[in-house]
Design a protein that fits this description.
The structure holds three protein chains of three kinds. Chain B is of the alpha/beta class. Chain B is built from twelve helices and twelve strands. The chains are: A alpha+beta, B alpha/beta, C mainly alpha.
Chain lengths: 707, 333, 327
């Protein structure tokens, strides 16, 4: 091995390229721009302005952020549901003048005045909401008209009350607390903002109404068709926005007690700017309260900092405009760039050197030597089944198979001409096993582990396991549950082929050659699901050893079978049983007389083996060549391998002519016959085995001879 | 360089005035001189106007800046650009920064009142200019608004007496501002004695010429026989003047303002009948004196409570002469 | 006739037109002096600037954009022009430089939207703040700029009369006609409709979508500059504080009220005229009725609200066909 090869191998073993694509796939990366902006801005202001980071100044800034943040949260909630609320600025001013008029002029008690002010804000929101939600007016135009209407109304109120407001002052400890008080050292308005943000976040992400709101924003039509009351949901967002604006206006009134005509002018645009800079999108679909908060803080800091920098005329406006433009431009670019970049770098091939394959073509003495023993299989259900990945038989000799349409179909004994849908499970059912009660447990790609009970009712067993601590993609959901087996104590051991790809993308996982698969254990007694082995090269067949003390599993791209000890001195460890298979192993099942059957979905080729040691080559291929031109692993011709407890290969069965059963993914021995399934076949095969125990069945091997 | 020259000049003047009799040749050192300059060295003056970019604030700022430069003080402007909210933010921030003096131009009597109190409690001297707030700080320098209001009303009363409709419109700036409340009071004082004058409109133009234009053209349409308009600020009243010009009617427009060249030009053209002016340059000097006073007094902030009213200057065709008005253009030079 | 008016063909434009006609008739009947020629001229004059800016905005909105810089350009370009002339520049030079400023802002808008693909709302929102700030910082240091004496030669733009008709009304008529002709008869005008209707389809069909988008904003900037000159010469000054007023909303309102859809591709100059007339009739009638300025705004807001509510009731939006993101 040259030093270059050695370095390349190290590089591909230890540099986690795949992380880049995974990081880019996460939605939180959308926050990179606003967070960077926030950090940069804070650092700059802290450097440029003496004591910007002093307690007093942070408190003052936080108090202003408190008011503004409430409005931005309201705006964001409206935007999340696909609308926009331009009336917030006027509503804010209305609340300001209402609160002051009630307290200073009408001498209402502070509590009642605040309640009334919030009521007025809610009313304005309700008007917006009624018009936009129920009468289906356009949000932009409607809130624009409401903005001018409320503004005119505010002017009218100012004309009537402003002088009287200005000439009287009210001594109220509560009112002073609202305007200038602190809770645990933090300004009251900021505390209020944080509480509001937490509540809003909880409602949006955890409660039904929040989900409905997100659904309406994501796709109004789909939400409508799903039976969500779109008008009510939309209306509600405007009421929330109205109340929050009024709350902000009340805080402002308490802080300054000034009723001027410029109050809240242009606030709607500042609020929209903040919501946008935070990363929320107009028209719904993307956004969160956290983003709103971040945007509010950025814009507040920026405006506050610019006033404090004492810039000359117009410079601050110029900076605000430039920041908005740059932030949005980068954001727009980033969203696009992220997706295209992710598409480019998500596939990250690894270095994989397989041991030399046995000479199964040229060496006739090899147990793998090719033969024609499968030429004469009987064919069951020709053309009636689409991709029976796994087959299994019950004690009544009926054959069950899992099909591409999401169905489990059975052919009734004895002649297997009558076909019936045993259960519709959905997804892509793959491996199957009967449990002690005779329920059929199925691994379903895209769904998880399911069970079809005796009454043919489909039940979910598990679809989630523990999340790996350092995994970037969320690996708690199961994407590609593949095959399973059941221990005598009822625990289900099943494989998930890969956590990075879905079932249809299996070939990309092959190209990657990285240990993306795992073995998971589900305990029906406790309902606990745990991942027990990670980083397997496309974990596939799973089979309990005959003595139930260990578990055999196959790694398809690793071309090997391993044993995982469930008890005994090596408990919890795995060891390789067969390291150098000539092909890609799929399901493993028990055979009679203490043997095992293994399906090889395809055979290794020297070219593909070599390609697996050249990750850079495969990366280039994945990026530059169309997917149907890729170098594929051979999955056209495979065989059935018979091996014993020690991994010694006894025989193999091939269909050299390729007439009836060249591709095999599973096989079951049953009363002297071997039943064959293939993930791309349109038939089930059956062949009589010479030398097998004619009474042996898988059912009795696991659960004894009982019905 | 420049300040040292001025200092030299000051020293010269001092030496000439008192002690010159004995010591013409060698001169005598003034013991208080060094202390005087030391008092101001490194002090900070912050100015929070309603907005920069108008004649008044630019005028005051330039006068204050000159003195600050001369005495080695730092002079900062925080420009809220017509936003009371941003102004409040600026003052809040200043309280944290602790300059020695804040000069405040209030947008209305209430918005900053609490903050100014806080500032003085924090030991910052607060000087209010022209537009006061409800809180009486160390110093108020500004126009005598009630007097101006009276003079304006009187000028309109003179023109709209017998033989006219007697209909008058009042165009306020911002009724809650310190200036308008005073001018309104002054106008009331005069108009209440003249029952023949009917006030047909009393509206706010919010310091905006465009809005003033809309308000006054509406009033003229509603009252085609309008006789006079009492405007509260010349810059805004240009909008009213345009509305009057468009109507083609001989309506008397009396205004008040900072006596900038624009006012003289417009009085000359007959756009304004009269402007009751407060002289911005003089106000700037008053400001400077009071800044020096509060700093020199060494007193705690909030103790002084001084008021300096600026004298009125009437600009009319009769009083008009070159040099009567100051020019904002010259400030830059 | 009645059936045609009340049937499915009752569009927002027709509703607004009907309301305008109804108000006009009512005012003519009940208000003394409303129908007098000089009052009609006053009415038109009071909304002509709004109408001109509306035409500029309409060109952009039809192309599924929005131009929030229009008031900034309107105020700052005219103010800079005055400021230059005040500083001694000759009037033609000042006029040219003022126009170049307007055009620069417009073209920048277009480039940001067409080439950087920033949504129009935010591109122009950011540009409005940036252009205003830049102009205040570097070009026009004062809030209010007065007309210089040397500008007497261009006073006619906003303050002149032709056969007793104020020039501002004539300019409105001219701009409206040019806008109509541009949108209806030129290739670029038709492309604007195509882009507004379906951007992707227009692009695939081979329309030069990006240059056309830039053109739209250049057109609206030009119109804004003209409107700025008209206002500035009419009141002999330009108050740049108008940038921070609610004027931009009034402009959007006359455009959208008349039936130009914010989702693009719908409507034309006729709609702008209808919207402008409704506002003009309302304001003028209320003024004659001696309603106070502030209260006028409230009533105007209410009537606008009623107009869009009627439209929504007559032409309800269907959840099934509503466009996602069409706010």
């Amino acid at each position: 091995m040259t030093i270059g090869e050695w370095a390349g191998r190290l590089r591909y073993r230890y540099v986690p390229d795949h992380v880049v694509g995974e990081v880019l796939g996460r939605r939180w990366t959308d926050n990179v721009i606003p967070v960077t902006l926030l950090v940069a801005l804070t650092l700059y202001l802290a450097a440029a302005i003496p004591n910007f980071i002093s307690v007093g100044n942070i408190n003052d800034t936080a108090r202003q952020i408190g008011e503004f943040g409430l409005i931005v949260i309201g705006m964001t909630i409206v935007m999340l549901a696909g609308g926009i609320d331009l009336s917030v600025g006027s509503n804010f001013a209305l609340a300001n003048v209402t609160a002051l008029a009630l307290i200073n002029v009408a001498k209402w008690p502070v509590e009642a005045a605040i309640a009334a002010t919030l009521g007025v804000g809610a009313l304005v929101g309700l008007i917006n909401g009624f018009l936009i939600g129920f009468l289906r007016l356009r949000a932009f135009l409607t809130t624009l008209v409401v903005l001018t209407l409320i503004r005119a109304f505010v002017d009218l109120l100012l004309e009537a009350y402003s002088v009287r407001i200005a000439s009287s002052d009210v001594e109220s400890p509560l009112w002073d607390f609202v305007g200038a008080g602190s809770v645990l050292g933090a300004p009251f308005s900021f505390v209020l903002l944080i509480v509001t943000a937490i509540v809003a976040h909880f409602v949006l992400t955890r409660l039904r109404i929040g989900w409905r709101l997100m659904a309406v924003g994501g796709s109004r039509r789909a939400a409508y068709n799903a039976g969500i009351s779109v008008p009510r949901t939309v209306c509600l967002t405007y009421v929330v926005s109205g109340v929050l604006s009024a709350l902000a206006g009340t805080l402002y009134a308490a802080r300054l007690s000034g009723a001027g005509p410029d109050t809240g002018i242009g606030l709607e645009l500042t609020a929209v700017t903040a919501a946008l800079i935070g990363g929320n999108s107009v028209g719904g679909g993307r956004g969160s309260v956290g983003k709103a908060l971040m945007g509010a803080i950025i814009v507040s800091l920026l405006l506050n900092g610019l006033v404090r920098l004492g810039l000359p005329n117009g410079a601050s406006s110029m900076v605000v405009g430039a920041v908005l433009l740059i932030a949005i431009a980068i954001d727009v670019r980033w969203i696009r760039w992220r997706h295209s970049l992710r598409a480019k770098v998500y596939v990250s091939p690894a270095y994989l050197a397989l041991p030399a394959a046995p000479l199964f073509v040229s060496d006739p003495s090899s147990p793998y030597a090719m033969n024609d023993r499968l030429r004469d299989v009987e064919v069951i259900g020709l053309g009636e089944v689409d991709g029976p990945e796994d087959v299994i038989l019950d004690l009544d000799d009926n054959v069950y198979c899992s099909l591409r349409q999401g169905e489990i179909v059975r052919f009734l004994a004895p002649d297997y001409t009558k076909r019936e849908v045993y259960a519709h499970v959905g997804g892509r059912p793959l491996g199957m096993a009967f449990d002690r009660d005779g329920s059929l447990v199925v691994c379903i790609a895209g769904m998880g582990l399911y069970r079809v009970n005796n009454l043919r009712k489909v039940e979910k067993m598990t679809a989630e396991t523990n999340r790996s601590r350092l995994s970037i993609i969320d690996d708690s959901r199961m994407r590609l549950a593949d095959d399973l087996d059941i221990a005598p104590d009822g625990k289900v051991y099943f494989s998930e082929a890969t956590i990075r790809y879905g079932f249809e993308e299996w070939v990309v996982d092959a190209l990657e050659g990285r240990g993306n698969g795992r073995i998971i254990r589900y305990d029906p007694a406790t309902g606990v699901t745990r991942t027990i082995i990670r980083n397997l090269l496309f974990a596939n067949g799973v089979c309990m050893a005959h003595d139930n003390k260990s578990l055999l599993f196959a790694e398809t791209w690793g071309c090997r079978i391993s044993r995982y000890w469930l008890e005994g001195p090596k408990e919890g460890t795995a060891e390789v049983l067969i390291a150098d298979l000539p092909g890609y192993p799929d399901n493993i099942n028990r055979g009679s007389r203490g043997t095992y059957w293994l399906g090889l979905a395809g055979t290794r080729t020297p070219s593909y083996d070599m390609a697996m040691t050249m990750p850079a080559f495969r990366r280039r291929m994945a990026r530059r060549v169309a997917a149907d031109e890729w170098l594929f692993p051979n999955v056209n011709v495979g065989c059935v391998v018979h091996f014993d407890e020690n991994g010694g290969v006894l025989e193999s069965l091939w269909d050299l002519g390729g007439e009836n059963h060249p591709a095999i993914t599973s096989m079951r021995e049953h009363r002297g016959f071997l039943y064959l399934g293939g993930v791309t076949n349109n038939r089930i095969g059956r062949i009589r085995l010479a030398g097998a125990d004619p009474d042996w069945t898988g059912q009795s091997s696991y659960w004894g001879n009982r019905r | 360089m420049k300040s040292s020259k001025i200092a030299l000049a000051v020293a010269t003047v001092l030496s000439l005035s008192g002690i010159a009799a004995h010591a013409v040749a060698q001169g005598i050192d003034d013991p208080r001189r060094a202390d005087y300059f030391k008092t101001f060295e490194g002090k900070t003056i912050a100015f929070v106007p309603v907005t920069m970019g108008i004649d008044l604030t630019e005028g005051w700022a330039s006068v204050m800046k000159k003195q600050a430069d001369r005495l080695g003080m730092k002079f900062e402007i925080r420009d809220p650009q017509f936003s009371a909210d941003r102004g409040a933010e600026a003052i809040t921030a200043l309280i944290a920064e602790k300059p020695d003096v804040i000069v405040v131009h209030n947008p209305d009597v209430q918005s900053y009142a609490k903050l100014l109190k806080r500032a003085e409690e924090a030991g910052i001297h607060v000087v209010q200019i022209n537009m006061r707030s409800n809180y009486n700080s160390d110093v108020y320098v500004g126009a005598d608004w009630i007097g101006i209001g009276e003079a304006e009303a009187q000028a309109v009363v003179d023109k709209c007496g017998a033989g006219t409709s007697g209909k008058v419109a009042i165009l306020q700036g911002q009724p809650t501002s310190g200036s308008d409340s005073g001018m309104m009071k002054g106008a009331d004082n005069v108009l209440s004695k003249h029952p023949e004058i009917k006030v047909v409109a009393n509206q706010a133009g919010e310091w905006d010429a465009t809005k003033a234009h809309s308000v006054i053209s509406t009033v003229i349409q509603q009252n085609p026989d309008l006789c006079g308009v009492i405007g509260f600020w010349d810059v805004m009243d240009l909008g009213a003047a345009a509305a009057i010009k468009e109507s083609g009617k001989p309506i008397v427009l009396v205004t008040s303002g900072g006596g900038e060249q624009m006012a003289c030009d417009n009085v000359e053209k007959g756009v304004f009948e009269k402007e009751i002016a407060y002289q911005v340059m003089d106000q700037g000097r008053d400001l400077n004196d009071m800044i020096v006073t509060v700093l020199e007094s060494g007193q705690q902030a909030g103790k002084l409570k001084a008021v300096v009213y600026s004298p009125q200057l009437v600009i009319s065709k009769e009083t008009l002469r070159p040099g009567l008005c100051w020019s904002a253009k010259d400030l830059k030079k | 006739m009645l059936r045609r008016l009340t049937g499915a063909a009752l569009t927002q434009e027709k509703i607004v037109l009907l309301i305008a006609i109804a108000l006009f008739c009512a005012f003519s009947f009940f208000l003394k002096g409303f129908l007098r020629p000089d009052n009609i001229l006053t009415l038109l004059r009071s909304v002509s600037t709004l109408g001109i800016l509306g035409v500029g905005m309409a060109v952009v909105v039809i192309g599924r954009g929005i131009d929030l810089t229009i008031v900034t350009i309107y105020a700052m370009s005219a103010a800079w022009m005055f400021h230059l002339a005040n500083g001694g520049a000759s009037i033609p030079l000042a006029l040219t430089l003022g126009y170049l400023f307007a055009l620069a802002v417009g073209v920048t808008n277009g480039v940001l939207i067409a080439y950087l693909e920033i949504p129009a709302l935010f591109a122009t929102l950011g540009m409005a703040a940036f252009a205003y700030g830049f102009a205040r910082y570097a070009l026009v240091p004062l809030y209010v700029v007065y007309m210089p004496a040397s500008a007497a030669s261009i006073v006619w733009i906003g303050g002149g009369f032709v056969f007793g008709v104020p020039t501002s009304i004539l300019f409105f008529a001219l701009v409206a006609f040019l806008g109509f002709a541009f949108l209806r008869f030129t290739k670029q005008g038709r492309f604007i409709y195509a882009i507004g209707d379906n951007f992707a389809a227009a692009r695939i069909s081979g329309a030069p979508v990006r240059p056309i988008v830039v053109l739209q904003y250049a057109v609206s900037a030009t119109v804004a500059y003209l409107a700025g000159l008209i206002t500035a010469t009419a009141v002999a000054s330009m108050n740049t504080a108008v940038v921070n007023s609610s004027m931009i909303y009034d402009i959007i309102l006359v455009v959208v009220l008349g039936g130009v859809g914010l989702s693009g591709g719908r409507g034309g100059i006729r709609n702008v005229i209808v919207g402008t007339l409704l506002i003009g009739i309302l304001l003028n009638g209320m003024t004659i009725m001696n309603i106070q300025y502030t209260l006028q705004n409230v009533i105007r807001g209410l009537i606008l609200l009623i107009a869009i509510v009627i439209d929504s009731v007559v032409n309800p939006r269907d959840e099934q066909t509503a466009q996602q993101g069409d706010i």
